[in-house]
Amino acid sequence: MALKGYEVEVLKRMYDDDLIEYNYKPIEQVASIIDWREIASTYGVKKKFKGIIKHLIAKKYIDDHSKGGAVASLTKKAVLFVEGLT
After folding, report:
1. Average pLDDT for consecutive 10-residue bins of the chain (86 residues)?
2. Per-position b or e across 21-57, b if 16+ CB within 10 A of its CB
3. Which of 59, 6, 49 is nearest to 25 (CA)?
4. What is the 3-state secondary structure (H, E, C) of the chain?
5. Which terminal residue of the chain has fewer beta carbons within 10 Å of its beta carbon, N or C?
6. Which of 43, 40, 44, 17 is nearest to 30 (CA)?
7. CA–CA separation, 19 and 72 (whole Å)
8. pLDDT for res 58
9. Residue pair 85/11 in contact by the 8 Å Cβ criterion
10. What integer pLDDT is reported at residue 1 of this predicted model?
């Protein structure tokens, strides 16, 4: 199943802001850093950021570091995916 446009945008912005592997942050801070409101507005997303993060965790693009979805950073799979886009 392919990623949706807004999911790809989340991954790209997290990559650009160096939220990779052990450089994790609380998801509220991640939402602020990547400007989730702008992404949601641009793509017409009605879902909450936490739900998007949990979905990407399930797909193994984001790691929550066993913190129950409270923190987030990109996995190696996500890094390779984003680097493959360029």
Report:
1. 93 98 95 97 96 95 92 97 92
2. eeebbebeebbeebebeebbeeeebeeebeebbbebe
3. 49
4. CCCCHHHHHHHHHHHHCCCECCCCEEHHHHHHHCCHHHHHHHHCCCCCHHHHHHHHHHCCCEECCCCCCCEEEECHHHHHHHHHHC
5. N
6. 17
7. 8
8. 95
9. no
10. 65
Alpha carbons 3 and 11: distance in angstroms, whole number: 10
Tell which residue, 82, 60, 85, 84, has the closest CA to residue 14: 82
Q: What is the pLDDT of residue 78?
A: 97
How far, in Å, CA of 62 to CA of 30, rounded?
12
How far is 86 from 68, CA to CA, in rounded Å? 31
Residue among 52, 46, 48 nearest 72 (CA): 52
User: The tokens 């913190």 sit on which residue?
Assistant: 67
The per-residue pLDDT for 69 is 86
